[in-house]
Protein backbone atom coordinates (compact mmCIF):
# COMPACT_ATOMS: atom_id res chain seq x y z
CA UNK A 1 0.00 0.00 0.00
CA UNK A 2 2.84 2.36 0.88
CA UNK A 3 4.50 1.66 -2.46
CA UNK A 4 1.27 2.52 -4.27
CA UNK A 5 0.98 5.82 -2.37
CA UNK A 6 4.60 6.73 -3.15
CA UNK A 7 4.14 5.88 -6.84
CA UNK A 8 0.97 7.95 -6.98
CA UNK A 9 2.70 10.88 -5.26
CA UNK A 10 5.65 10.72 -7.70
CA UNK A 11 3.24 10.62 -10.63
CA UNK A 12 1.42 13.69 -9.25
CA UNK A 13 4.71 15.57 -8.76
CA UNK A 14 5.84 14.75 -12.31
CA UNK A 15 2.48 15.88 -13.63
CA UNK A 16 2.77 19.21 -11.81
CA UNK A 17 6.22 19.84 -13.23
CA UNK A 18 5.40 18.70 -16.78
CA UNK A 19 5.18 21.38 -19.43
CA UNK A 20 1.75 20.47 -20.72
CA UNK A 21 1.64 23.30 -23.27
CA UNK A 22 4.93 22.19 -24.82
CA UNK A 23 3.60 18.64 -25.00
CA UNK A 24 0.48 19.91 -26.79
CA UNK A 25 2.65 21.84 -29.24
CA UNK A 26 4.79 18.81 -29.92
CA UNK A 27 1.71 16.65 -30.63
CA UNK A 28 -0.09 19.23 -32.77
CA UNK A 29 -0.08 18.95 -36.54
CA UNK A 30 1.26 21.79 -38.69
CA UNK A 31 -1.31 24.53 -39.08
CA UNK A 32 -3.15 23.61 -35.87
CA UNK A 33 -4.86 26.21 -33.70
CA UNK A 34 -4.47 25.76 -29.95
CA UNK A 35 -7.17 27.74 -28.13
CA UNK A 36 -6.23 27.97 -24.48
CA UNK A 37 -8.64 28.51 -21.58
CA UNK A 38 -7.84 30.85 -18.74
CA UNK A 39 -5.02 29.64 -16.51
CA UNK A 40 -1.28 29.69 -15.85
CA UNK A 41 0.86 27.56 -18.17
CA UNK A 42 4.22 27.14 -16.51
CA UNK A 43 7.51 26.71 -18.31
CA UNK A 44 9.09 28.10 -21.47
CA UNK A 45 7.98 26.79 -24.84
CA UNK A 46 9.43 26.42 -28.35
CA UNK A 47 7.38 26.52 -31.55
CA UNK A 48 9.11 25.02 -34.57
CA UNK A 49 6.17 24.44 -36.90
CA UNK A 50 3.34 26.57 -38.38
CA UNK A 51 0.95 26.93 -35.45
CA UNK A 52 -1.44 29.33 -33.72
CA UNK A 53 -1.76 29.75 -29.96
CA UNK A 54 -4.74 31.90 -29.02
CA UNK A 55 -6.19 32.74 -25.64
CA UNK A 56 -9.92 32.01 -25.70
CA UNK A 57 -10.39 34.54 -22.91
CA UNK A 58 -8.37 36.99 -20.86
CA UNK A 59 -6.07 35.54 -18.21
CA UNK A 60 -4.18 33.01 -20.32
CA UNK A 61 -0.67 33.27 -18.83
CA UNK A 62 2.52 31.62 -20.07
CA UNK A 63 5.04 31.90 -17.25
CA UNK A 64 8.72 31.32 -18.01
CA UNK A 65 9.54 30.79 -14.33
CA UNK A 66 12.47 33.20 -14.55
CA UNK A 67 14.55 31.06 -16.88
CA UNK A 68 15.64 31.93 -20.43
CA UNK A 69 13.23 33.11 -23.12
CA UNK A 70 9.57 32.34 -22.46
CA UNK A 71 8.38 31.71 -26.05
CA UNK A 72 10.82 30.83 -28.83
CA UNK A 73 9.55 30.78 -32.42
CA UNK A 74 11.67 29.11 -35.12
CA UNK A 75 9.11 28.75 -37.88
CA UNK A 76 7.10 30.69 -40.41
CA UNK A 77 3.31 31.10 -40.15
CA UNK A 78 3.09 31.28 -36.36
CA UNK A 79 0.45 33.30 -34.50
CA UNK A 80 0.38 34.31 -30.84
CA UNK A 81 -2.75 36.17 -29.79
CA UNK A 82 -4.44 37.32 -26.57
CA UNK A 83 -1.80 35.88 -24.25
CA UNK A 84 0.06 37.16 -21.20
CA UNK A 85 3.72 36.18 -21.48
CA UNK A 86 5.79 36.81 -18.39
CA UNK A 87 8.82 36.14 -16.22
CA UNK A 88 11.75 35.59 -18.57
CA UNK A 89 15.30 35.08 -17.36
CA UNK A 90 17.62 38.00 -16.55
CA UNK A 91 20.69 37.24 -18.67
CA UNK A 92 21.65 39.99 -21.12
CA UNK A 93 24.24 37.82 -22.85
CA UNK A 94 21.48 35.33 -23.70
CA UNK A 95 18.99 38.04 -24.66
CA UNK A 96 16.36 36.51 -22.39
CA UNK A 97 13.03 37.69 -23.77
CA UNK A 98 9.30 37.31 -23.54
CA UNK A 99 9.20 36.23 -27.20
CA UNK A 100 12.03 35.48 -29.59
CA UNK A 101 10.99 35.07 -33.22
CA UNK A 102 13.69 34.15 -35.72
CA UNK A 103 13.88 32.97 -39.34
CA UNK A 104 10.16 33.49 -39.75
CA UNK A 105 7.74 35.06 -42.18
CA UNK A 106 4.03 35.83 -42.29
CA UNK A 107 3.75 35.42 -38.53
CA UNK A 108 1.75 37.50 -36.06
CA UNK A 109 2.10 38.52 -32.42
CA UNK A 110 -0.89 40.57 -31.38
CA UNK A 111 -3.04 41.57 -28.41
CA UNK A 112 -0.48 40.17 -25.97
CA UNK A 113 0.79 41.44 -22.62
CA UNK A 114 4.53 40.88 -22.25
CA UNK A 115 5.69 41.75 -18.75
CA UNK A 116 8.49 41.10 -16.30
CA UNK A 117 10.66 40.06 -19.25
CA UNK A 118 14.16 41.44 -19.73
CA UNK A 119 13.64 41.92 -23.47
CA UNK A 120 10.09 42.11 -24.78
CA UNK A 121 10.02 40.83 -28.37
CA UNK A 122 13.35 39.91 -29.97
CA UNK A 123 12.74 39.73 -33.71
CA UNK A 124 15.48 38.61 -36.11
CA UNK A 125 15.48 37.69 -39.83
CA UNK A 126 11.70 37.80 -39.83
CA UNK A 127 9.83 39.29 -42.78
CA UNK A 128 6.27 40.17 -43.81
CA UNK A 129 4.94 39.74 -40.29
CA UNK A 130 2.69 41.70 -37.92
CA UNK A 131 3.46 42.90 -34.39
CA UNK A 132 0.35 44.71 -33.18
CA UNK A 133 -1.48 45.94 -30.10
CA UNK A 134 0.91 44.46 -27.56
CA UNK A 135 1.69 45.92 -24.12
CA UNK A 136 5.36 45.47 -23.27
CA UNK A 137 7.30 46.22 -20.08
CA UNK A 138 10.75 45.11 -18.99
CA UNK A 139 11.87 43.96 -15.57
CA UNK A 140 11.96 46.46 -12.73
CA UNK A 141 15.60 47.51 -13.22
CA UNK A 142 17.50 50.79 -13.69
CA UNK A 143 17.05 52.18 -17.20
CA UNK A 144 20.41 51.04 -18.61
CA UNK A 145 19.98 47.49 -17.29
CA UNK A 146 16.61 46.84 -18.86
CA UNK A 147 16.36 45.01 -22.16
CA UNK A 148 14.81 46.43 -25.32
CA UNK A 149 11.05 46.35 -25.47
CA UNK A 150 11.09 45.52 -29.17
CA UNK A 151 14.27 44.59 -31.01
CA UNK A 152 14.08 44.28 -34.80
CA UNK A 153 17.21 42.89 -36.53
CA UNK A 154 17.62 42.11 -40.22
CA UNK A 155 13.84 42.02 -40.59
CA UNK A 156 12.06 43.58 -43.55
CA UNK A 157 8.58 44.58 -44.69
CA UNK A 158 6.86 44.11 -41.35
CA UNK A 159 3.93 45.99 -39.83
CA UNK A 160 4.62 47.24 -36.30
CA UNK A 161 1.49 48.98 -35.08
CA UNK A 162 -0.40 50.07 -31.96
CA UNK A 163 2.07 48.61 -29.50
CA UNK A 164 2.65 50.19 -26.10
CA UNK A 165 6.19 50.10 -24.68
CA UNK A 166 6.56 51.39 -21.13
CA UNK A 167 9.62 51.26 -18.87
CA UNK A 168 11.75 49.20 -21.20
CA UNK A 169 15.10 50.36 -22.60
CA UNK A 170 14.86 50.93 -26.37
CA UNK A 171 12.87 49.99 -29.42
CA UNK A 172 15.54 49.33 -32.04
CA UNK A 173 15.25 48.86 -35.81
CA UNK A 174 18.68 47.84 -37.06
CA UNK A 175 19.63 46.58 -40.53
CA UNK A 176 15.92 46.39 -41.30
CA UNK A 177 14.12 47.90 -44.29
CA UNK A 178 10.64 48.58 -45.58
CA UNK A 179 8.88 48.37 -42.22
CA UNK A 180 5.71 50.29 -41.33
CA UNK A 181 5.93 51.58 -37.77
CA UNK A 182 2.64 53.25 -36.96
CA UNK A 183 0.54 54.37 -33.99
CA UNK A 184 2.85 53.01 -31.32
CA UNK A 185 3.25 54.59 -27.88
CA UNK A 186 6.35 54.73 -25.70
CA UNK A 187 7.11 56.33 -22.35
CA UNK A 188 9.81 56.22 -19.66
CA UNK A 189 12.25 54.47 -22.00
CA UNK A 190 15.73 55.47 -23.17
CA UNK A 191 15.34 55.52 -26.97
CA UNK A 192 11.66 55.10 -27.76
CA UNK A 193 12.63 54.40 -31.38
CA UNK A 194 16.20 53.96 -32.62
CA UNK A 195 17.15 53.21 -36.23
CA UNK A 196 20.59 52.15 -37.43
CA UNK A 197 21.57 51.10 -40.97
CA UNK A 198 17.89 50.96 -41.89
CA UNK A 199 16.20 52.26 -45.02
CA UNK A 200 12.83 52.86 -46.63
CA UNK A 201 10.92 52.64 -43.36
CA UNK A 202 7.67 54.52 -42.77
CA UNK A 203 7.22 56.03 -39.30
CA UNK A 204 3.74 57.46 -38.83
CA UNK A 205 1.49 58.73 -36.03
CA UNK A 206 3.55 57.39 -33.13
CA UNK A 207 3.53 59.13 -29.73
CA UNK A 208 6.61 59.19 -27.49
CA UNK A 209 6.87 61.06 -24.20
CA UNK A 210 9.02 61.17 -21.05
CA UNK A 211 11.90 59.32 -22.71
CA UNK A 212 15.57 60.25 -22.94
CA UNK A 213 15.26 60.35 -26.75
CA UNK A 214 12.13 60.16 -28.84
CA UNK A 215 13.19 59.06 -32.35
CA UNK A 216 16.82 58.78 -33.45
CA UNK A 217 17.91 57.87 -36.98
CA UNK A 218 21.55 56.82 -37.58
CA UNK A 219 23.41 55.76 -40.72
CA UNK A 220 20.16 55.34 -42.63
CA UNK A 221 18.39 56.67 -45.69
CA UNK A 222 15.15 56.85 -47.66
CA UNK A 223 12.79 57.03 -44.67
CA UNK A 224 9.64 59.07 -44.04
CA UNK A 225 8.57 60.16 -40.55
CA UNK A 226 5.25 61.93 -40.47
CA UNK A 227 2.54 62.79 -37.97
CA UNK A 228 4.53 61.75 -34.91
CA UNK A 229 4.32 63.49 -31.52
CA UNK A 230 7.50 63.59 -29.45
CA UNK A 231 7.40 65.46 -26.17
CA UNK A 232 9.08 65.90 -22.83
CA UNK A 233 12.33 64.08 -23.59
CA UNK A 234 14.02 64.17 -20.21
CA UNK A 235 17.39 65.47 -19.03
CA UNK A 236 19.71 68.26 -20.15
CA UNK A 237 20.41 66.36 -23.39
CA UNK A 238 16.89 65.05 -23.92
CA UNK A 239 16.13 64.94 -27.63
CA UNK A 240 12.97 64.90 -29.72
CA UNK A 241 14.06 63.73 -33.17
CA UNK A 242 17.71 63.14 -34.11
CA UNK A 243 19.34 62.73 -37.52
CA UNK A 244 22.92 61.44 -37.69
CA UNK A 245 24.60 60.57 -40.99
CA UNK A 246 21.27 60.12 -42.77
CA UNK A 247 20.26 60.95 -46.33
CA UNK A 248 17.05 61.40 -48.29
CA UNK A 249 14.90 61.68 -45.18
CA UNK A 250 11.54 63.38 -44.87
CA UNK A 251 10.33 64.74 -41.51
CA UNK A 252 6.88 66.16 -42.09
CA UNK A 253 3.89 67.18 -39.96
CA UNK A 254 5.49 66.06 -36.71
CA UNK A 255 5.03 67.83 -33.37
CA UNK A 256 8.16 68.16 -31.23
CA UNK A 257 7.42 69.85 -27.92
CA UNK A 258 8.91 70.39 -24.44
CA UNK A 259 12.28 68.74 -25.15
CA UNK A 260 15.79 69.87 -24.31
CA UNK A 261 16.58 69.61 -28.04
CA UNK A 262 13.78 69.59 -30.58
CA UNK A 263 15.47 68.44 -33.81
CA UNK A 264 19.15 67.40 -33.81
CA UNK A 265 21.08 67.35 -37.11
CA UNK A 266 24.54 65.77 -37.24
CA UNK A 267 26.39 65.41 -40.55
CA UNK A 268 23.18 65.05 -42.48
CA UNK A 269 22.56 64.58 -45.31
CA UNK A 270 25.52 62.22 -45.37
CA UNK A 271 25.66 61.11 -49.00
CA UNK A 272 26.78 63.65 -51.65
CA UNK A 273 24.14 65.33 -53.79
CA UNK A 274 21.26 64.33 -51.52
CA UNK A 275 18.87 66.29 -49.32
CA UNK A 276 16.78 65.91 -46.21
CA UNK A 277 13.38 67.59 -46.01
CA UNK A 278 12.18 69.01 -42.70
CA UNK A 279 8.76 70.44 -43.51
CA UNK A 280 5.50 71.48 -41.88
CA UNK A 281 6.58 70.44 -38.40
CA UNK A 282 5.59 72.14 -35.16
CA UNK A 283 8.76 72.66 -33.09
CA UNK A 284 7.43 74.16 -29.89
CA UNK A 285 8.68 75.18 -26.45
CA UNK A 286 11.98 73.33 -26.53
CA UNK A 287 15.21 74.61 -25.02
CA UNK A 288 16.71 74.42 -28.52
CA UNK A 289 14.49 74.16 -31.59
CA UNK A 290 17.08 72.93 -34.13
CA UNK A 291 20.59 71.93 -33.08
CA UNK A 292 23.29 71.50 -35.74
CA UNK A 293 26.41 69.46 -35.04
CA UNK A 294 29.30 68.89 -37.46
CA UNK A 295 28.90 69.47 -41.21
CA UNK A 296 25.19 69.68 -41.98
CA UNK A 297 24.22 71.35 -45.23
CA UNK A 298 21.69 70.78 -48.02
CA UNK A 299 18.77 70.26 -45.66
CA UNK A 300 15.51 71.80 -46.86
CA UNK A 301 13.81 73.35 -43.82
CA UNK A 302 10.56 75.03 -44.75
CA UNK A 303 7.04 75.81 -43.60
CA UNK A 304 7.71 74.79 -40.02
CA UNK A 305 6.26 76.59 -37.00
CA UNK A 306 9.11 77.42 -34.61
CA UNK A 307 7.51 78.85 -31.49
CA UNK A 308 8.36 79.38 -27.84
CA UNK A 309 11.86 77.93 -27.92
CA UNK A 310 14.68 79.48 -25.88
CA UNK A 311 17.09 79.12 -28.82
CA UNK A 312 15.79 78.76 -32.37
CA UNK A 313 19.08 77.62 -33.93
CA UNK A 314 22.16 76.26 -32.18
CA UNK A 315 25.43 75.44 -33.93
CA UNK A 316 27.94 73.79 -31.59
CA UNK A 317 30.75 73.46 -34.15
CA UNK A 318 32.36 75.90 -36.54
CA UNK A 319 32.09 73.54 -39.49
CA UNK A 320 28.37 72.91 -39.47
CA UNK A 321 27.66 75.43 -42.30
CA UNK A 322 24.13 76.03 -41.15
CA UNK A 323 23.76 78.94 -43.57
CA UNK A 324 24.14 76.51 -46.50
CA UNK A 325 20.82 74.84 -45.78
CA UNK A 326 17.69 75.94 -47.63
CA UNK A 327 15.66 77.57 -44.87
CA UNK A 328 12.56 79.30 -46.16
CA UNK A 329 8.94 80.11 -45.41
CA UNK A 330 8.98 79.10 -41.75
CA UNK A 331 7.05 80.85 -39.00
CA UNK A 332 9.38 82.25 -36.30
CA UNK A 333 7.82 83.81 -33.25
CA UNK A 334 11.08 85.78 -32.77
CA UNK A 335 10.85 87.49 -36.16
CA UNK A 336 10.89 91.25 -35.73
CA UNK A 337 10.05 92.42 -39.25
CA UNK A 338 6.89 93.72 -40.95
CA UNK A 339 4.56 92.70 -43.73
CA UNK A 340 3.58 95.94 -45.44
CA UNK A 341 1.94 94.36 -48.50
CA UNK A 342 -0.07 91.79 -46.51
CA UNK A 343 1.17 88.67 -48.33
CA UNK A 344 2.07 86.91 -45.05
CA UNK A 345 5.78 87.04 -45.97
CA UNK A 346 8.13 89.24 -44.00
CA UNK A 347 9.58 92.24 -45.82
CA UNK A 348 13.09 91.37 -44.63
CA UNK A 349 14.79 88.01 -43.99
CA UNK A 350 14.79 86.48 -40.53
CA UNK A 351 18.47 86.23 -39.56
CA UNK A 352 19.83 84.21 -36.63
CA UNK A 353 23.21 84.94 -35.06
CA UNK A 354 25.20 83.25 -32.35
CA UNK A 355 26.89 85.47 -29.80
CA UNK A 356 30.23 84.62 -28.26
CA UNK A 357 28.96 85.43 -24.78
CA UNK A 358 26.21 82.79 -24.94
CA UNK A 359 28.23 80.36 -22.87
CA UNK A 360 25.28 78.10 -22.12
CA UNK A 361 25.38 76.87 -25.73
CA UNK A 362 28.69 75.14 -25.02
CA UNK A 363 28.49 74.45 -21.30
CA UNK A 364 26.01 71.73 -20.32
CA UNK A 365 26.18 72.74 -16.65
CA UNK A 366 24.79 76.17 -17.44
CA UNK A 367 21.82 74.57 -19.25
CA UNK A 368 20.42 73.80 -15.83
CA UNK A 369 19.33 77.45 -15.74
CA UNK A 370 17.54 77.39 -19.12
CA UNK A 371 14.25 79.21 -18.92
CA UNK A 372 15.19 81.16 -15.80
CA UNK A 373 14.86 84.98 -15.65
CA UNK A 374 18.63 85.42 -15.51
CA UNK A 375 19.14 83.51 -18.77
CA UNK A 376 16.39 85.52 -20.45
CA UNK A 377 18.09 88.72 -19.29
CA UNK A 378 21.49 87.57 -20.57
CA UNK A 379 19.91 86.67 -23.90
CA UNK A 380 18.44 90.16 -24.18
CA UNK A 381 21.70 91.90 -23.24
CA UNK A 382 23.73 89.77 -25.69
CA UNK A 383 21.50 90.86 -28.54
CA UNK A 384 21.29 94.48 -27.40
CA UNK A 385 25.00 95.03 -26.83
CA UNK A 386 27.14 92.00 -27.83
CA UNK A 387 30.69 91.91 -26.50
CA UNK A 388 32.03 90.65 -29.84
CA UNK A 389 31.00 90.24 -33.48
CA UNK A 390 28.22 87.64 -33.61
CA UNK A 391 28.49 84.55 -35.83
CA UNK A 392 25.93 84.38 -38.63
CA UNK A 393 24.08 81.08 -38.49
CA UNK A 394 21.27 81.22 -41.04
CA UNK A 395 18.54 83.26 -42.59
CA UNK A 396 15.01 82.54 -43.67
CA UNK A 397 14.61 84.62 -46.81
CA UNK A 398 10.81 84.47 -46.75
CA UNK A 399 9.62 84.15 -43.15
CA UNK A 400 5.93 83.72 -42.53
CA UNK A 401 4.09 86.27 -40.41
CA UNK A 402 1.26 83.93 -39.45
CA UNK A 403 1.14 80.18 -38.95
UniProtKB/TrEMBL annotation:
Where is the signal peptide, in residue numbers?
1-18
Q: One Pfam family, please name it.
A: NosD
| Keywords, alphabetical | Signal
Gene3D superfamilies reported in the protein's UniProt record: Single-stranded right-handed beta-helix, Pectin lyase-like (2.160.20.10)
Tell me the InterPro entries matching this sequence: NosD_copper_fam, NosD_dom, Para_beta_helix_rpt-2, PbH1, Pectin_lyas_fold, Pectin_lyase_fold/virulence
User: What are the residue boundaries of the Periplasmic copper-binding protein NosD beta helix domain, all occurrences included?
Assistant: 132-337
The organism sits in which domain of life?
Bacteria
NCBIfam families in the cross-refs: NosD_copper_fam (TIGR04247), para_beta_helix (TIGR03804)
Q: What is this protein called?
A: Nitrous oxidase accessory protein
Amino acid sequence: MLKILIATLLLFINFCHANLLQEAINKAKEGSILKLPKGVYKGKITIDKPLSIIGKEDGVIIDGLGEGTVVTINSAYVTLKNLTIQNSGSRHENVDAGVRIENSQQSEISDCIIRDSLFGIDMATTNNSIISNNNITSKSLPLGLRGDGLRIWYSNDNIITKNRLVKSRDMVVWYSHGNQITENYGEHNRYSLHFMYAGKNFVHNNTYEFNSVGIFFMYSKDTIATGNVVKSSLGATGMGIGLKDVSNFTLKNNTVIYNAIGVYVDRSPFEPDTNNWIENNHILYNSEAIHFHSLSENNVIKQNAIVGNIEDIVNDSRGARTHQNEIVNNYWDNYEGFDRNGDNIGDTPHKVYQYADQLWVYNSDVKFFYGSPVISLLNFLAKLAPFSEPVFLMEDTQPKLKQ
